[in-house]
Every structure is written in structure tokens, then in C-alpha cells.
Design a protein that fits this description.
Layout: E1 5-8, E2 13-17, E3 22-26, E4 34-40, E5 49-54, E6 64-68, E7 78-82, E8 89-95, E9 104-109, E10 120-126, E11 132-139, E12 145-149, E13 158-162, E14 169-174, E15 179-185, E16 194-197, E17 206-209, E18 222-226, E19 232-237, E20 249-255, E21 264-268, E22 274-278, E23 284-289, E24 298-301, E25 310-315, E26 320-325, E27 334-339, E28 351-353, E29 362-366, E30 375-381, E31 384-391, E32 397-403, E33 412-417, E34 427-435, E35 438-445, E36 451-457, E37 466-471, E38 476-481, E39 490-495, E40 501-507, E41 516-521, E42 526-532, E43 538-544, E44 550-556, E45 565-570, E46 577-582, E47 588-594, E48 599-605, E49 614-619, E50 629-636, E51 642-649, E52 654-660, E53 669-676, E54 678-685, E55 692-700, E56 706-707, E57 710-714, E58 723-728, E59 733-739, E60 745-751, E61 760-767, E62 773-776, E63 784-788, E64 791-799, E65 803-811, E66 818-824, E67 833-840, E68 845-850, E69 859-862, E70 865-873, E71 878-885, E72 899-901, E73 907-910, E74 918-921, E75 929-932, E76 936-943, E77 949-958, E78 971-974, E79 981-986, E80 993-999, ...
Parallel strand pairs: 1-51, 2-55, 72-77
Antiparallel strand pairs: 3-59, 4-5, 5-6, 6-7, 8-9, 9-10, 10-11, 12-13, 13-14, 14-15, 16-17, 17-18, 18-19, 20-21, 21-22, 22-23, 24-25, 25-26, 26-27, 28-29, 29-30, 30-31, 32-33, 33-34, 34-35, 36-37, 37-38, 38-39, 40-41, 41-42, 42-43, 44-45, 45-46, 46-47, 48-49, 49-50, 50-51, 52-53, 53-54, 53-56, ...
Length: about 1050
């Protein structure tokens, strides 16, 4: 089958955003290096809290006393008790020293060296407000261990103490607040341990001092009897090795261990044996445990509920924590290893008590000296102790996987912990989801040498989830059977000879309905698959015998033929991506699909949303040659061909890859884990273009590098939001990114409304996860709204899964200038009008333009009329104003043509003007008309209300000839009565023109003029301006006046 692989180089469209809708928390807490723990109900809430004495060595736990609060989630958050004026803590005791009903703390501090005795014995007095005051009992000596009891029967707690760097043992008698020192024993070689209890059964408190030495020289471990008032006498030596040696080291306890009513003594001997000195048999020695080298601390309590105390012992030589179960009196023939990979460098005092309130005793185990700084709670379940890591650095945290291991409907976390340093635990852990993003961890196995990869599947077909695990340094491929309990799962080897096995994949390759496993042998340069027989047995087959540096492998139906194919990523430039197409459940066709890069992780997903499976790999690239490829996608063309495209460029040293719909927008996004400052980043798909991505940095350091070899994604609490779990291999942490809400961050921009119009613009820019939906107070659902007037506008932006952010934007109005035009009228028909422009406020004016073409603000020398000004301001807004320049005109009137007057007659001179005007005749009269009876030159000056004047003059001459009358019979008027016009008919031959006069019934002349006769026969006059009434009409021909005719107007 021929396959085509081509590489298209395309640039991804990238924009970086800062998201605020998530937070990251560690699922493990930083380790604590402590050599002493106690249990106390510190907060008086009815349950036991853990009190720890930190020796330092951790930035999260500087030297001091802390209480770890026992709260419902059993996460045990730390709270400081004392962090000042305290050093080199070796032992602590809880006791009410001052009798105020508040518990105080007694602290032993060792010296910095034997030659420098600067230790001290102090107590911290608790105050009513919860603070503490330090009181020094004695300083300048070495103190390793102390115990508290009422030695002198006065009702007050006294103290017995000793130190490794001195040979004395002291009792400090309490007088109510201060102490009186008394040396009760001397000449002990290297005293380390002490215990106080009633040994001889007389009702007072005796003391055992542990140490080493010869009995003949009086140097060994011994019992000191109390006389009841605080005076001590030698009782006997605790001989542990030979008759000469009385050697008790590391720990000693006084307890009725076999429940016979007599206190016994339990302690470690010189060669590491654990002895019981039987109180019922005069303290005869019984050896009950003999570790290879050294013991350590031990606790005596009933673990299995058979009413016989058991012993939890530390075997520091073998690095083990062991339960010695007492099956009958002083018979400890049943043992159980609780911890088998403990690198202890010193004593660590354990504590027991009912932490979980289920009426049995649990164990608190501080792994003093362990490089992880582990503090563990071993929960007692039905008489067996199961470990929870409360505080640990998880050195070598590598691959996390989500799975519902306990089948309770939520997602738990499986984790491999691995390291090549040799001092850390190589193990598989289960972090059980107990709700509200809280987890409690269980150890599935601690015998996996560099646990590299883990796959949760039902291997044996029993309905629960088991796990495949690859152990790189052990060259092992194993499976762990889910036992259905909290105890370590049963480990079964699949292949114990698989050099540097790394990535594994669980898949039904042969189609028989059970899950096989495919494994990469990195050193052997081979890929194997192991056929499952359905019961957890496997048959090894070679999938590829020659592939360089195989790293991780994934399975899917790549060619859509109904069976499962495989895709491999390699840390090799010769075969970066290899595809194995399944031909018949037995044979696979190999294709080297991509070369030239060092791959680091691989995912199979439908990246281009075309319903077939594509292949994506991350690149581990330290080569500075550009471009630095980050993620390569082999896009499935659907016909067994793949087209390689770079979908992400620029990131470096990528270690892990996950392809998932992170933001709930129905398309796939990319998660990347890296080796560097930026540990975890998401690249969100923004469109249907395969390289249109937006970056979200989810976790980064400012001053140190991290390393993320594994990522997984699931909805942990079933709230519709994905959580991300990732391991920081370098900084020893398992971390979870929780998305509380995908509420977007909003930035807004506005454009103000200008020119007095509704043209404002508001835009909101959202950043965060997913597709954004907008809703404005205007009803718009767009990102930008336009056509806005001044005011406040609200917008809500929502993203998956309906989380909303809101903001408001104020659109202000850019002020427009107020413009007034002041016009000055013309003067009596002169061109002297003016316009003055007054601009106030607003935006400065840039240009003036008049309809006359002028560009100045003010105009002069204007004729009357309407003027228009267009003003343009600096915002290019236009203001249009109009003003009328009023024309002041002279009054228009006429005295008419010069005329004549007959001797002895009168005539009327009429100015024919507005009666409201002022008239001044040359005769002194002020009426609109005057009557004269003599010839002469007459004038009248008329003034209108605007103060404009007009002067007219008429000459009246005396008639010198005979008056020629136009007789009434000489012309006719038709129609008469008339309305708008009349026609004059002349009976005179060739009459061309005659002057006519029309007077009203009072004799006032109301209309005059000249009538032109057409053809010498008729002339038409317009009388439409005259109101209805009786009028007289006269005609004058030259100097002659004719007789009047009666004219009736309707």
C-alpha cells in the first residue's frame, strides 16, 4: 500500500492572553524533616491533630513547632505554634506545667556538637490568646530526650531529661512554675533514651535511663527506683548482649505488653535486637526481633484488635517499617512490612492515636532523614495499617492518569513516582477523590524501579481497574491487580527483560475483547506487544525489531477499517513518527511518517474535525536553529495518507502533550508540559483553521525550572469543567489546575459622540477561554455597537459554561460650539450691512465659509438679503447658520406728471403713499394729499419708519387754452357694474391715449393712469385692486378734462 507524506510549513496565528479563571494547587504538600511527632486535640474540636517538631531543611517548614489540623478532608493543613527562639529540636512533650489547664510544650534541644554544649531544656507556656512565652529550665547542656511525671507526689509534673553528649541524668522538680535540678544518675555512656513509669509496682514513678556501657564499671543502661518523694536509688542493669553489657539504645518503653498485670520493659540491644524484659519473671530477657543492623523508634499499641499490644518498629538498617503482631503472650511470630524503602539517618519518634474517629488506633510516621521529607498517616482499617502520605516531596513524580479506580462516579488519580538517584521511593500511588478537589493517597506498590508509565484498564476481566506499569531501570513491564482493598496491589511481571521500557499503551490489538499492552524498549530499539489471554497472562510478540529510540505509543483506527492501528513517537531524527497499520490483527505495515526532530509525546485525535484520526506530537528541541518546531500534526487525508503541518512554533523542550476540548467550545485544544520556566501552557483553538491558536500560560516559575513529563485532563467533580493534573518531576510535586469559572476578562474602548449626532461607538474585548457571547443594554449581541448618543451602556460577556463578566461604558458627547450671527441692516438702500459671528465653547473652529464665497468670520458692506455660514471645527463637524440682513429702503411714491390748473379752479395733489409714513409738503401741510387753487411748484418729503426719506416735486401750470371736454357720450364703460376690469370704448376718431382718474364716493382719488386705446377705439383698465363700491371715472385728453361717468364695482 503506497503512502504519501508531505510537509507544509505554515505559520500559526498566535495571540497570548492572561487568564484569571483558574488556580493551581499542589496535591502533595512539601516534605517536613522532623524527628518527633505527638497527637493532641490542639483546637479542642474533638479530634486529634498532629504536633510536629521541624528540624528545618524545608522552606515550608523552618525550625519550629507546628500543628497539622485534623479537618474533615483529612488534608492536615499546617499551622505554626512556635517558630522563634527554638533550635535543634530533638524531643517534645505536651504537659500543663503551670497548672492553668492550658497545655504547654517541653522541648529538648541538642548541642551543635559534642565539643560545643549549647543545647537547652525549655518550655513554652501557652497564653490565653494562643501565643507562647519561652522559659529556659537549663542551658549549655546537650538534651536528646525527656519524659514527664510527678516524681515527688506533689501533684505537679516534673521532668527527667538526658543528653547524648553528657553522662548524667537529671530530674527537674516543678514548684509550680520554676524548677529545681537534681542529678539522679551519673556515669552513663552516651545516654540517648529515657522512660518513666511504675516498674516495681509500688505506686510511684520509676525511671529507666538508656545508654551503653559495662555493668562492672557502672556505665550501662539501668533502672532507678523512686522512694515516692523523688529520691532515686539504683535498681538493676538492663543487660542485653553479654553479662557485661547493659546497652539500651534508640528507644525504651515501660508497658504491660503481654497484659499480665505487670509492667515490662522493651528496648533495643547493642546489636540491634529488640528485647522484652518480662516484669512477671523478674525482668527476664526475651528477644522478639533481630534486624540486621540497627533499630529505631517503636510504638506499642494494639493494631489488629486482638487485645494484645503489637509493636510497630523502625528497622533503620534495612530501611523498613515493620509491624510485629503479638499473637499470644510475647509471641511475635507474625510480621508485616509497612514501608520498605526508607532511607533513615536518625531517630524519628512516631505517634499513635485514633485520627479518623473510628475507635481504632492509627499511626503517624515521620521519616526523619528520608530525602523526601515524608510524613505519613497509616490508617487502621480492620486491623491493618494503610499508608497515606500527608507531607511529601514526591521526588520523581512522573506520570499522572485520571481514572475512576474506586468506581464511585468521580475521577481518581494514578501516579508513578520514579527517580534515578537511588534514594527515593519508586512507587505507584492512588490519589482517591473524596470530593471538593480533595484527595487522600494510597500506595499501590513501592517496588517499581523508576516507574515510567502507567495505564489503568481492566486487565483480568473482573470488572475493576488494574494497571499496567513500566519500570525503566528494572527493565520490567508489570501489571498490578486491583485487590479491592487499600493494601498494596499484587504485582505480576509481564516481561522482566525489557531494557529501559518507557511508554506503554493498553489496546485490544487482536480483537478478542480483552486488553493487550504495547511497550517501547528504548535501549533495545524495539516495540513489543503482549497478547492478553483474558486472565492476566501474556504472550510476547515483536511489533518492530528495528526502530530508533521509541518513546511513546498510542492506538486508534487510523485508516477507518475497523481495527486498531498504532502511532509511535521517537526521540530520534531518523524516525520521529512511525505509523503501524493493522492488516489482520497479526501483521502491521510500518511507515516512517516524519523525520528530522526529537519527539517527546504523541496524541491521536480528530484535529481538523473531518471524522478521521490525526496524529499530533510534541518536539523536545534544544537546538537553537530556527524555526523551533513545537507541535507537528499529521493530518489524515482519509486514504491512508497523512500530510504533516506545523501547527505551533516557538516553544522549547516540550515533554508532554494532551489534546482535549479544554474550553468547552466543541473543538480541540492543546496542552503542553515543558522542561523550563513555563511548565504548563494551553493553546486554545480559535477557529476552524488548524493553526489558529491562542496561548494561555497555566503555570510557570519565575526563578527556577520545572519538568512536566505527564499531563491528564478530566472533570474531577462532575461540574462540567475540566481539571488538569500534571507532575513536576524536577520540583517533586503533583499539581492540579482547577477552573472555577471561565469568566472572561474584559477591556473596553469607546469613541465619543461628535458633531451633536448619535455616532458614538463602544467595543468590548474579551480574553480568557472559549467562545464569547455578548449582550448589550441596547439589545445588541455584537462585540461592537455603533450609532450611540451620550449615555452609559452595559454589556455582559459570557463563555463556557455560562460564566459571565460585565462592565459598563460611558459615551460622552464631544461639545459643539454655540454660534450666533448678529446682522446689521443696510441704510436706506445703501450696501452697508454687516454680519458679526459670535462663537462660544465647544471644539475650536477650523474653517468659515459663506454662501458668498467669503471665508472670514465677519462680513461688511453687505446688501440686504439671506446669508448662510458653514463652520467646520477641528473634529470636522459642520455647523450651518443663516441670518437675514434687513434692507432699509426709501419710501416709494410719486406725485405724478406735472399738471395744469384752470383759473379759479382747484386740484388735488396726492403723494399716493403709505398713510403710516410722515409727509412734509412745501406748503407746510403733513397729509398724504393737498388741494391747491393756484399754479406753482409743489414738493413733498416722505419719511418712512426706518427714517429713510424721498422728495418729489410737481409743477402745476395755469391753463391758457380752451378746455376740451370729452363728453359723456364720447366714451362708454363696459361692463358696468364691473368686478376686475373694464373696457372703455371711444366714439372719438383716432383717440390713442387719454388719462383716467377714478375717485371714490368721498371724492378721494384712488386710481389714475393712462389708458391706451387699441385701434383708436378701446382700452382695458384693471380695477381689481379696488374694493366694491361707487366710483366716478373721468378721462382727460391733453389739457382737457372730460365729464365723469358713474362706475359700479361689485
Amino acid at each position: 500500500m503506497k503512502r504519501c507524506i508531505s510537509l507544509l510549513i505554515t505559520l500559526c496565528m498566535i495571540s497570548s492572553i492572561s487568564a484569571q479563571s483558574f488556580n493551581t494547587s499542589a496535591l502533595n504538600k512539601a516534605g517536613i524533616y522532623t524527628n518527633a511527632t505527638l497527637l493532641q486535640d490542639y483546637d479542642s474540636d474533638g479530634d486529634l491533630d498532629i504536633i510536629v517538631a521541624s528540624a528545618g531543611g524545608s522552606a515550608d517548614f523552618p525550625v519550629g513547632l507546628y500543628w497539622l489540623e485534623n479537618e474533615p478532608t483529612q488534608q492536615f493543613p499546617k499551622r505554626p505554634i512556635v517558630k522563634e527562639n527554638i533550635t535543634r529540636i530533638e524531643d517534645i512533650d505536651i504537659v500543663d506545667i503551670d497548672g492553668d489547664s492550658r497545655m504547654d510544650y517541653l522541648v529538648c534541644s541538642r548541642s551543635s556538637s559534642i565539643s560545643r554544649p549549647d543545647g537547652e531544656l525549655v518550655w513554652f507556656q501557652r497564653q490565653a490568646d494562643g501565643s507562647y512565652i519561652k522559659w529556659t529550665i537549663i542551658a549549655g547542656k546537650d538534651f536528646n530526650r525527656a519524659d514527664v511525671a510527678d516524681f515527688n507526689a506533689d501533684g505537679k509534673p516534673d521532668i527527667v531529661a538526658l543528653g547524648f553528649g553528657q553522662s548524667e541524668g537529671y530530674v527537674f522538680f516543678n514548684d509550680g512554675f520554676f524548677f529545681t535540678e537534681k542529678t539522679v544518675v551519673t556515669n552513663i555512656i552516651q545516654p540517648k533514651v529515657v522512660d518513666a513509669n511504675d516498674i516495681d509496682g509500688d505506686g510511684d514513678v520509676d525511671i529507666i535511663f538508656g545508654g551503653g556501657g559495662l555493668t562492672t564499671q557502672g556505665q550501662g543502661a539501668r533502672v532507678m527506683y523512686n522512694d515516692g518523694v523523688g529520691n532515686f536509688a539504683f535498681g538493676f542493669y538492663l543487660v542485653t548482649h553479654t553479662n557485661a553489657h547493659a546497652y539500651i539504645i534508640d528507644d525504651v518503653e515501660i508497658s504491660d505488653i503481654n497484659k499480665d498485670g505487670k509492667n515490662d520493659i522493651i528496648g533495643w540491644g547493642i546489636l540491634g535486637e529488640l528485647f522484652v524484659f518480662d516484669g512477671a519473671k523478674k525482668y527476664a530477657k526475651v528477644e522478639i526481633f533481630d534486624p540486621p543492623v540497627l533499630g529505631g523508634d517503636f510504638l506499642i499499641f494494639d493494631v489488629d484488635g486482638n487485645n494484645l499490644p503489637d509493636i510497630v518498629v523502625q528497622d533503620r538498617g534495612a530501611g523498613q517499617l515493620i509491624v510485629l503482631y503479638q499473637t499470644s503472650s510475647l509471641q511475635f511470630n507474625k510480621t508485616e512490612i509497612l514501608e520498605s524503602n526508607w532511607n533513615n539517618k536518625g531517630l524519628s519518634q512516631m505517634a499513635s492515636g485514633d485520627l479518623d474517629g473510628d475507635d481504632d488506633l492509627d499511626l503517624v510516621f515521620p521519616e526523619n532523614g528520608n530525602i523526601d521529607g515524608d510524613l505519613s498517616w497509616f490508617e487502621n482499617i480492620n486491623g491493618k495499617l494503610f499508608r497515606h502520605l500527608i507531607y511529601t516531596e514526591l521526588k520523581g513524580a512522573r506520570i499522572p492518569k485520571f481514572a475512576d479506580v474506586d468506581q464511585d462516579g468521580d475521577q481518581d488519580i494514578l501516579l508513578t513516582v520514579s527517580s534515578s538517584l537511588g534514594n527515593e521511593e519508586d512507587e505507584a500511588l492512588l490519589f482517591e477523590n473524596i470530593g471538593n478537589h480533595h484527595f487522600i493517597n494510597w500506595r499501590l506498590s513501592d517496588s517499581l524501579d523508576y516507574a515510567a508509565d502507567i495505564e489503568p484498564v481492566d486487565i483480568d476481566g473482573d470488572g475493576d481497574l488494574d494497571v499496567f506499569v513500566s519500570a525503566r531501570d528494572a527493565n520490567d513491564l508489570v501489571w498490578l491487580k486491583n485487590n479491592g482493598t487499600r493494601e498494596p496491589w499484587t504485582k505480576t511481571a509481564i516481561d522482566a527483560n525489557l531494557p529501559q521500557v518507557l511508554g506503554i499503551s493498553a489496546v485490544d490489538l487482536d480483537g478478542d475483547k480483552d486488553l493487550d499492552v504495547v511497550a517501547c524498549s528504548n535501549n533495545e530499539d524495539k516495540v513489543f506487544w503482549y497478547r492478553n489471554d483474558g486472565k492476566g497472562g501474556f504472550n510476547k510478540l515483536v511489533l518492530d525489531a528495528n526502530v530508533d529510540a521509541p518513546l511513546e505509543i498510542e492506538a486508534s483506527d487510523l485508516d477507518r477499517d475497523g481495527d486498531i492501528d498504532l502511532a509511535l513517537v521517537c526521540a530520534s531524527t531518523t524516525n520521529t513518527i512511525v505509523i503501524y497499520l493493522n492488516q489482520d490483527n497479526q501483521r502491521f505495515t510500518k511507515t516512517i511518517a516524519f523525520t528530522g526532530e526529537l519527539g517527546s509525546d504523541i496524541e491521536i485525535a480528530d484535529w481538523d474535525a473531518d471524522n478521521d484520526q490525526d496524529i499530533l506530537i510534541s518536539i523536545y528541541n534544544t537546538n537553537p536553529v530556527n524555526p523551533k518546531r513545537s507541535v507537528i500534526a499529521l493530518i489524515n487525508a482519509g486514504n491512508s495518507t497523512f500530510q504533516a503541518e506545523e501547527i505551533l512554533i516557538g516553544s522549547e523542550n516540550l515533554r508532554s502533550l494532551k489534546v482535549v476540548d479544554l474550553d468547552g467550545d466543541k473543538d480541540l485544544d492543546i496542552l503542553l508540559g515543558a522542561n523550563g520556566l513555563v511548565l504548563l501552557e494551553a493553546w486554545l483553538r480559535m477557529s476552524n483553521r488548524i493553526n489558529d491558536l491562542r496561548q494561555v500560560i497555566l503555570y510557570e516559575y519565575s526563578n527556577r525550572d520545572g519538568d512536566v513529563p505527564g499531563i491528564d485532563v478530566a472533570d474531577v467533580d462532575n461540574n462540567g469543567l475540566n481539571e488538569i493534573v500534571f507532575a513536576d518531576f524536577r520540583n517533586h510535586a503533583l499539581l492540579m489546575v482547577k477552573f472555577d469559572c471561565f469568566a472572561p476578562s474584559l477591556n473596553s474602548t469607546v469613541t465619543r459622540a461628535t458633531c451633536g449626532e448619535n455616532n458614538g461607538v463602544a467595543t468590548v474585548t474579551a480574553s480568557g477561554f472559549g467562545e464569547f457571547k455578548y449582550k448589550w443594554s441596547t439589545g445588541s449581541t455584537e462585540q461592537t455597537i455603533t450609532g450611540l448618543r451620550s449615555g452609559v451602556y452595559q454589556v455582559s460577556v459570557s463563555s463556557f459554561p455560562g460564566c459571565t463578566s460585565s462592565t459598563s461604558m460611558a459615551i460622552s458627547r464631544v461639545p459643539v460650539a454655540t454660534v450666533n450671527l448678529l446682522a446689521t441692516s443696510t441704510t436706506c438702500d445703501q450696501k452697508d450691512g454687516k454680519i458679526q459671528t459670535n462663537v462660544q465653547g465647544g471644539t475650536p473652529i477650523l474653517r468659515y465659509r459663506w454662501n458668498t464665497g467669503d471665508t472670514s468670520a465677519n462680513l461688511i458692506n453687505l446688501a440686504g438679503g439671506l446669508y448662510t455660514l458653514t463652520l467646520t471645527d477641528t473634529n470636522n463637524c459642520q455647523i450651518i447658520k443663516e441670518v437675514n440682513v434687513v434692507t432699509k429702503s426709501r419710501p416709494l411714491f410719486s406725485l405724478g406728471k406735472d399738471t395744469t390748473i384752470a383759473s379759479g379752479k382747484t386740484i388735488t395733489l396726492n403723494a399716493n403713499g403709505n398713510p403710516d409714513w410722515l409727509y412734509q409738503w412745501s406748503t407746510g401741510e403733513t397729509s398724504t394729499s393737498i388741494v391747491i387753487n393756484s399754479p406753482g411748484t409743489f414738493s413733498v418729503k416722505v419719511t418712512n419708519p426706518d427714517g429713510c426719506t424721498t422728495l418729489d416735486t410737481i409743477v402745476v401750470k395755469l391753463t391758457t387754452g380752451t378746455t376740451q371736454f370729452i363728453a359723456i357720450a364720447d366714451f362708454k364703460v363696459s361692463p358696468n357694474p364691473a368686478q376686475k376690469s373694464i373696457v372703455l370704448y371711444s366714439q372719438l376718431a383716432n383717440l390713442q391715449e387719454a388719462e383716467f382718474f377714478i375717485a371714490n364716493s368721498t371724492g378721494q382719488l384712488v386710481q389714475q393712469g393712462f389708458a391706451s386705446f387699441v385701434g383708436g377705439r378701446s382700452a382695458e383698465l384693471d380695477v381689481s385692486a379696488l374694493p366694491s363700491g361707487l366710483y366716478s371715472l373721468s378721462l382727460v385728453k391733453g389739457p382737457y378734462r372730460g365729464m365723469s361717468k358713474l362706475l359700479i364695482l361689485k
